[in-house]
Design goal:
Layout lengths: L2 H9 L4 H11 L6 H12 L24 E10 L10 E2 L4 E6 L6 H11 L22 E8 L2 E7 L11 E3 L1 H9 L2 E2 L8 H26 L15 H7 L7 H13 L4 H12 L4 H28 L1 H25 L13 H18 L23 H15 L1 H22 L5 H10 L4 H26 L12 H20 L3 H26 L1 H23 L3 H29 L5 E9 L2 E8 L8 H4 L2 H18 L6 E4 L7 H14 L4 E6 L2 H14 L3 E7 L10 E3 L9 H18 L5 H28 L3 E2 L4 E2 L5 H5 L2 H17 L16 H19 L4
Parallel strand pairs: 3-11, 3-12, 6-10, 10-11
Antiparallel strand pairs: 1-2, 1-4, 4-5, 7-9, 8-9, 12-13, 14-15
Helix pairs in contact: 2-6, 3-6, 5-22, 6-19, 9-18, 10-11, 10-15, 10-16, 10-17, 11-14, 16-17, 20-22, 22-23, 23-24, 25-26, 25-29, 26-28, 26-29, 28-29
C-alpha cells in the first residue's frame, strides 16, 4: 500500500480536529494565533467538529523544499564577549567565506554568537565581557539574514526567526556530541510532512494549554487550613483533598448541617473545659440519656416491625383468610335452621342478637344461671313469654350451634384480628416521644438520625397502604422492610454512648472524651471558616475542573501516537538513507568499521548514533578512537546532516580540523569546497595552512572564496573583533600575495613622484620584503611542500617528480631573484662601500613578472 494511503487510513482513527489540521497542512495553510486559540477551546470543551475531509485528493504527492537561509552580516555587537568593531563582519551568499583570526582576535566570539542562533548539536551561552561588563549586561547584535531572496535585519536576541534553525553549525564540542549522543538527521519521506505538521500543531496546542495551565495555577487562592483535630471530619476530608470531582452540593450540605446544629463552639469549649477540670457528672448523664434514647428509638422501630413487618402482615393476611373460611363453614351449619319460622337464623345479625340475649340473661335476667336458662317457669329473654317445650328445644339447638367448634374458632379469630387491626389503625409511626428523642440525638448522631427518619418514612408509607387495604378488604401489601441494619446501628450507637459514659469514670476515658470533643469543636470552627470562604472554595472547585479539562486536552494533543506512526511508516527508509549517506562521508574521511544506527525516536524524529561494526566488547566510540579519528567522525556526521538538508542553507564551522593529520585536513577542505558549490559555507579558522588548502580546493572547483579577517584593534585597550574584508599577509596564498604586490606596486608608481628619497626607499623595502616572503612561500608550497609533509616527518614519494623536473635554470632564476630582492628589503644592512639606490618601478615590475612566471611554471610540475 502506498505511503499516502497509509496516512489517510490512519487519519480516520484520529480526532476530527487532527484530521482538519492534516487537511490544512496538506493544503499548505498555516494556522493563525486566533485559530490555535479556537482549536484549544474545541479540545478543552470536548466539542465535536464536523468530520474533516482529508483523503488522497487533499494529500499532495511531494512536499516542497524549504528555501535556503544564509547569513549576510553581523554588526553592532554589544556585550558579546569583548567584541568591538566599527565595521560589520560580512559573508558572501554563495561559495566559501573564510574568516581568519589569530588566537584572541575575537574570531570565536563571532562564531559563538552564530552557534547560539543556528542548529548546533552542542549549545552554549554567549558570555559578556567578564572583565568590564556588569552581571546585568545582556549580549545583543544585529544580524542580516537572507531567507530565499528576501533579506532581513534581526535585532538579536529580541527578534528571532525559526528559519535560522536551518543554519547548521559545527565546532569541536558539536563534533563530540555527534559521536557521543543521539542525533536527528533532517530527512523525511516527502508525504510525511503532513504528520510532521500535525506534530508541530500538537506541540503548539500543548504550548498554549501550558500557558492556560499556568494562568489557571496563578488563580489559586488559599483555602481554610484543616487542623489536625478536624482532619478526619467530613469537612476536613472535603477540604483536605479538593478535586475537580468535589461537589458544591456536598459543600452546601455541610454548611446546612452546621447551620442546623444545636451544638455551639462555646458549648463544646465549656464541655472540654469541664472534662479537663475532672467534672464529668453532667457529661456522663448526657451520654447515659443519649444511650437510653437510642435504645428507645430502637424499641420503637422493633414495635413498628412487629406490626408492619413482613411476618406480622403475612399472619394478619392468613387470619383474614381463616376468618373467611370459618364464616363459610358457619354458613353451612346455619342451613340447618332454614325450616325455622324466620329466615337468617345463624347469620351475622342473628349471632349479634344471640350474644346480646346472652349478656342480658347473665347480667340481668338470670345472673345465677348459665345461658340459655331453661328451668321451670323461665321466660324467653327476648320476648319474655314463658317457654314451652318447642321453644326449649329451639334454644337447645341454637346453643349447640353456637357452641360448635367452628363458631368458637370464628369468634376467637375475629377477636384477635380486630385487635390487630385496631393496633394498626391507632399505630403512630412518628410519636412525639420519638420525635423528641431524634431532635436530641441530631447533633451527636446525625447520620444515625437521618437513617432512622428514612426508615420511619418507609414504615409510615406501609402503614397507610395496609390501612387502605384493610378498609377496602384487599390483600395486604408485602413491602419487605428490613429494620436489621438500623437496629444494629442504634444498638451500636447506644453502646458507644454507654461506653463513653463509662469511660468518663477513668482518667484515660476522660482524656479520650476530651479529644473527641476537641475534634468536634475543631470541625465546627472549620465549618465556620468554610462558611465565610464558600465563594473561594467554589471558585477553587471550578479552577480544578478547568485544570482537569486542560490536562485531558493536553493528553489529547500528545505526539506519542503520531511519532509511533511516523516510525512505522518511515523507519526503514529514513535509517537506510542516513546510513548510506554516513557511510559515504566516513569513506571520504578514510574511517573504517563504523556505521550509524537508529537508537530511539522523539516527536517523530529518528535519533541515530555512530556505532562500531563487529566489536566483540561493549565500548563507546570516544574511548576507542584517537583524537583525530573522533574529530573526523564528528565531521562525517556533520557532513551527513548537511547532505540531508534539502534547504541547502548555510554551513558554519569553527576551527574544524584541529588534531587532524594533513591527509584528512585536505579531505575536509575538498569536502567543504564541494559543499560550497551549492550553498553558503562560512569557516572560522586560525590555521594558515588550512586556509591555503581551502583556497586550493576552491580554485580547483571554481568556487568563489571571500576573505574576511578578525583582529584586535590598535587602540589602547586592544579590544578584539575588528573586521576586515581581506586576509592578513600571512594567511594569503601565493596568487593572493602576487596580486597584492601588483596593487602595491601600482600605488608606488602613482604616488612616488611626491615622495622624498627616504619615503621611496622605505616603500620599496617593505614591498621587497613581501616579495622575498612570497619567494619563500612558493618554495615551501610548490617545491618542498608536495614532497615533505608534517614538518618533514613524512615523505610523499609520488611527488618526487617535482624535484626531478626542477632544472638548473629554475634554480638560477630563483637564486638570482631571491638574492636581489633580499638586498632591497629592510632586513639586510646596506654595505657602506656601496652607494645603495633603490630600484625604480620598472625594475620592481620586472622582478615581479619574473616571480609570477617562475611560480606558474614550477606549479605545473605537480601535474
Amino acid at each position: 500500500m502506498a505511503l499516502e494511503k497509509h496516512i489517510v487510513d490512519w487519519s480516520n482513527e484520529r480526532p476530527a480536529w487532527q484530521r482538519e489540521v492534516m487537511r490544512r497542512v496538506a493544503a499548505g495553510e498555516v494556522l493563525t494565533e486566533e485559530e490555535y486559540e479556537r482549536l484549544v477551546d474545541v479540545i478543552v470543551q470536548a466539542q465535536e467538529l464536523p468530520a474533516g475531509q482529508f483523503g488522497l485528493e487533499q494529500l499532495p504527492q511531494a512536499a516542497s523544499e524549504h528555501v535556503p537561509v544564509c547569513l549576510a552580516a553581523i554588526q553592532k555587537p554589544e556585550h558579546v564577549n569583548a567584541l568591538e568593531s566599527k565595521e560589520p563582519l560580512t559573508f558572501e551568499p554563495q561559495g566559501l567565506t573564510i574568516v581568519y583570526g589569530d588566537n584572541g582576535s575575537g574570531k570565536s566570539g563571532y562564531a559563538r554568537l552564530l552557534k547560539r542562533i543556528a542548529r548546533a548539536r552542542h549549545k552554549e551561552d554567549v558570555l559578556t565581557d567578564v572583565f568590564r561588563d556588569s552581571p546585568l549586561a545582556k549580549p545583543t547584535a544585529v544580524l542580516s539574514i537572507r531567507v530565499g531572496t528576501a533579506e532581513e535585519a534581526l535585532a538579536w536576541p529580541e527578534a528571532a526567526r525559526p528559519e535560522l534553525q536551518r543554519l547548521l553549525f559545527y565546532d569541536a564540542a558539536c563534533g563530540s556530541a555527534y559521536i557521543s549522543s543521539e542525533s536527528d538527521f533532517p530527512y523525511r519521506p516527502s508525504a510525511l510532512f503532513v504528520l510532521d505538521g500535525l506534530i508541530e500543531a500538537c506541540v503548539a496546542v500543548r504550548t498554549r494549554i501550558d500557558g492556560r495551565l499556568a494562568r489557571n495555577a496563578a488563580t489559586i487562592k488559599p483555602l481554610p487550613a484543616v487542623p489536625d483535630d478536624a482532619r478526619e471530619s467530613a469537612a476536613g476530608r472535603f477540604l483536605a483533598t479538593p478535586s475537580a470531582s468535589s461537589s458544591v452540593e456536598r459543600l452546601d450540605e455541610l454548611l446546612s448541617s452546621f447551620d442546623a446544629s444545636k451544638e455551639t463552639i462555646a458549648d463544646l469549649k465549656e464541655q472540654e473545659a469541664r472534662l479537663r477540670g475532672a467534672d464529668t457528672t453532667k457529661p456522663r448523664q448526657q451520654l447515659t440519656r443519649q444511650s437510653d434514647k437510642l435504645l428507645a428509638v430502637r424499641r420503637h422501630i422493633e414495635s413498628l416491625d412487629a406490626a408492619l413487618g413482613s411476618m406480622p402482615l403475612a399472619r394478619l393476611q392468613e387470619q383474614g383468610a381463616s376468618i373467611k373460611s370459618l364464616e363459610d363453614a358457619g354458613a353451612l351449619l346455619a342451613r340447618s335452621f332454614e325450616t325455622e319460622p324466620l329466615p337468617g337464623v345463624g347469620g351475622g345479625p342473628w349471632k349479634a342478637l344471640w350474644e346480646a340475649a346472652q349478656r342480658f340473661s347473665k347480667e340481668a335476667a338470670y345472673p345465677d344461671h348459665g345461658f340459655p336458662f331453661l328451668g321451670n317457669e323461665c321466660r324467653c329473654v327476648l320476648c319474655q313469654r314463658p317457654l314451652d317445650t318447642q321453644s326449649r328445644d329451639r334454644f337447645v339447638r341454637f346453643d349447640e350451634f353456637v357452641r360448635h367448634d367452628t363458631q368458637v374458632r370464628l369468634q376467637d379469630a375475629r377477636r384477635t384480628h380486630d385487635q390487630k387491626v385496631q393496633v394498626l389503625r391507632e399505630l403512630a409511626v412518628f410519636p412525639q416521644a420519638v420525635e423528641s428523642h431524634l431532635e436530641d440525638l441530631q447533633d451527636s448522631n446525625s447520620d444515625v438520625v437521618t437513617a432512622v427518619r428514612d426508615v420511619l418514612v418507609n414504615y409510615e408509607a406501609v402503614r397507610e397502604q395496609v390501612n387502605a387495604a384493610l378498609s377496602a378488604n384487599r390483600e395486604l401489601p408485602q413491602l419487605g422492610l428490613d429494620p436489621a441494619p438500623i437496629i444494629d446501628r442504634l444498638t451500636s450507637a447506644s453502646d458507644v454512648a454507654k461506653a463513653a459514659s463509662d469511660e468518663l469514670a477513668s482518667p484515660e476515658g476522660i482524656q479520650k472524651q476530651v479529644l473527641a470533643i476537641a475534634a468536634r469543636r475543631a470541625e465546627l470552627e472549620l465549618l465556620e471558616q468554610v462558611k465565610k470562604a464558600r465563594s473561594v472554595i467554589v471558585n477553587e472547585i471550578a479552577r480544578l475542573k478547568e485544570r482537569e479539562a486542560l490536562e485531558a486536552a493536553k493528553s489529547a494533543a500528545a505526539t506519542t501516537g503520531i511519532t509511533k506512526k511516523i516510525l512505522e511508516l518511515s523507519e526503514e527508509s529514513i535509517t537506510e538513507v542516513v546510513r548510506d549517506t554516513f557511510t559515504r562521508e566516513t569513506d571520504r574521511l578514510r574511517l573504517e568499521r563504523v556505521t550509524i544506527a537508529r537508537t530511539r525516536a522523539e516527536k517523530g524524529a529518528l535519533l541515530h548514533q555512530p556505532k562500531l561494526v563487529g566489536a566483540r566488547q561493549q565500548a563507546t566510540l570516544p574511548r576507542v578512537f584517537s583524537e583525530g579519528e573522533r574529530t573526523a567522525l564528528g565531521l562525517a556526521a556533520f557532513f551527513t546532516e548537511a547532505h540531508l538538508d534539502g534547504s541547502r542553507s548555510a554551513l558554519i564551522l569553527d576551527d574544524p580540523v584541529t588534531s587532524l593529520d594533513h591527509i584528512r585536513r585536505g579531505l575536509v577542505a575538498a569536502r567543504l569546497a564541494e559543499l560550497a558549490e551549492t550553498r553558503q559555507v562560512i569557516l572560522f579558522t586560525h590555521d594558515v595552512a588550512f586556509v591555503a588548502d581551502l583556497k586550493r580546493e576552491a580554485a580547483a572547483r571554481g568556487v568563489p572564496v571571500a576573505e574576511r579577517s578578525v583582529m584586535k584593534s590598535r587602540a589602547d585597550e586592544r579590544k578584539p573583533g575588528a573586521c576586515s574584508t581581506k586576509h592578513p599577509w600571512k594567511a594569503k596564498d601565493v596568487p593572493a600575495r602576487l596580486d597584492e604586490l601588483r596593487q602595491e606596486l601600482s600605488r608606488i608608481r602613482r604616488e612616488s613622484s611626491a615622495w622624498d628619497e627616504k619615503q621611496y626607499e622605505d616603500a620599496v623595502a617593505v614591498w621587497a620584503g613581501n616579495l622575498s616572503e612570497t619567494w619563500e612561500r612558493i618554495f615551501s608550497q610548490e617545491i618542498v611542500g608536495p614532497v615533505l609533509a608534517e614538518g618533514g616527518l613524512e615523505v610523499r614519494p609520488m611527488m618526487v617528480k617535482v624535484l626531478a623536473r626542477f632544472s638548473d635554470d629554475d634554480h638560477r632564476e630563483f637564486e638570482g631573484s631571491y638574492g636581489r630582492v633580499s638586498q632591497w628589503a629592510k632586513r639586510h644592512d646596506k654595505s657602506a662601500t656601496v652607494n645603495y639606490v633603490a630600484p625604480d618601478a620598472e625594475g620592481l615590475d620586472q622582478e615581479l613578472r619574473l616571480v609570477d612566471a617562475w611560480f606558474k611554471r614550477v606549479r605545473g610540475y605537480k601535474a
